[in-house]
Amino acid sequence: PRVSLPQPMPMQRSLKTIVPILVIAVASAGLVGALHYQHARLRAQSSAYWTRRMEASADATHSSVEAWLDERQEDDRLMARRAARNPKLFDAHRVREAAGVELEEVVTELAAERGYRGIWVVRADGSTVEASKFADALPAAVREAAMLSASNGKSASIGPLPITDGQIFAVIEPVMASGAGHAMKPIGAVILGIDPYETLYPLVLREQSGIESARHRLVQHVGDQLVVLTPSKFPQAKAGELHMPWGSAPIVGKLAAEGKDSSGAMLGIGDVPIIAATRRVPEAGWGIIRSLSQQEAFAPVEHEFQLEKTFALSIFLIGIVAWYFLRRH
């Protein structure tokens, strides 16, 4: 006699259908979790790498700018000592004499050798004692700063400031002479006028290999504004044109201008996410920013993540198709 086999119960058929689906779902969830963990780990590694690069770049830029400024201040001190040899030149009522002609020749020679826009020797009242040949007209703000230096006997700097054909940065050194009781007193000041486009900005904006979206800047807190002194690529702006109210300035600009050395992921101008490092040049009141966009920094990580997602999706679909055919047969 024929023996009939027992038919699977409905519950058993349901389990045979549901269990593979659950296995695939759990495996998929585990794969997605692993991918996101790997993605986060790679982003953290990339962020740490670029932060170190920006820190090294900011330190190198800071050292270069400090050395550049020291050289200009040393030139200024040299000229101040030279002018102090003839204190009578600072008497506004004396007629010009051979010592004045000689001083003009000295400052003209130094200006030509160093590429300065001009060198001016002024009295405490701001009137000019001598100036290098072909020197620009002295801006009123620079003359006022020189008068203050000649009054308090302290070194100073101002700018960069806009002028007719560009910008000028001025380094100011008081001229000291012996007074009553041999005490030294200021009788005037020497001003070095520097074109920042020629030497300063190239130091701050020098490119780094492998970076396309560099956002390197020199900034300053002026009044109630944060001013970007250097020309800008992102966004496009000429030197000194990019400025914003201090209250709404990006954190990276505030940190740099306030003299707080910092680094890491933060927001830049226009709330663009960046990886940056900031350094301070206290003598001039400048802040240095070396940065790049996070979009560029994380581009290789995001590309790899997309490839891994595509590969994982392919494996998942192959598994679904294989399960379907095995179930049918």
Task: Describe the protein.
- The protein contains seven helices and eleven strands.
- Strand 6 and strand 7 (225-228) form a beta hairpin.
- The two termini are 29 Å apart.
- Helix 1 runs antiparallel to helix 2 (98-114) and helix 1 packs antiparallel against helix 7 (299-328).
- The longest helix has 75 residues, at 10-84.
- Helix content is 46%, strand content 24%.
- The protein has 329 residues and is an alpha+beta fold.
- The mean pLDDT is 88.
Rounded mean pLDDT score: 88
Distance between the termini: 29 Å
The helix/strand order is HHEEHEEEHEEEHEEEHH
What radius of gyration results from the CA coordinates? 34 Å
Strand order of the largest sheet: 8-7-6-11-10-9
The count of β-strands is 11
Shape: rod-shaped
Please identify the structural class as seen in this structure. alpha+beta
Low-confidence stretches: none
The major sheet is characterized as: 6 strands, antiparallel
Number of helices, counting only DSSP H or I runs of 4 residues or more? 7
